[in-house]
Amino acid sequence: MKNLEEIIFMNNGLNSCLPVDIGRLKNVTVFNVSFNELVGPLPVSVCETGLVLVEQFNVAHNRLSGKILVSICQLPKLENFTYSYNFFTGEPPMCLRLPVSNERRNCLLGRPAQRSSKQCAVFLSRPPVDCGSFKCGRSVSHSPPCLYLELCLK
């Protein structure tokens, strides 16, 4: 996958967690998985081991949750980080300094244009998603999550 530069899986009905293996995509400059049903947190591997060349990172319109890692917003080439219409509960101030970011309709306290407190409470009252297991949470179909990117791309 040395030559893979763009991953665009918009509106594909993906309904699992993002695989940890996305951290192996060192040459990707565009990563867009918006308008799916992805759940769980963003994998730490996004920023710790891979996607160091990513310029456009779009995970909007899913059911992702948890806190945004500061290291995501510190990716050296990142210009546009779109994570609106999810259920994120924390965002580092560093993300607000990006040239383009969109955090609307999450569960970020004190930020404008967020989901209602009722929507957030209902969603966050569910058990946390365990992306390491084949039972990826109540909100996911009975299909096991795709844990290895090579298999997902076939």
Automatic annotation (TrEMBL):
Keywords: Leucine-rich repeat, Repeat, Secreted, Signal. It is found in: Secreted. Gene3D superfamilies: Ribonuclease Inhibitor (3.80.10.10). InterPro entries: LRR_dom_sf, LRR_extensin-like_regulator. GO terms for cellular component: extracellular region. This is Leucine-rich repeat-containing N-terminal plant-type domain-containing protein. It comes from Microthlaspi erraticum.
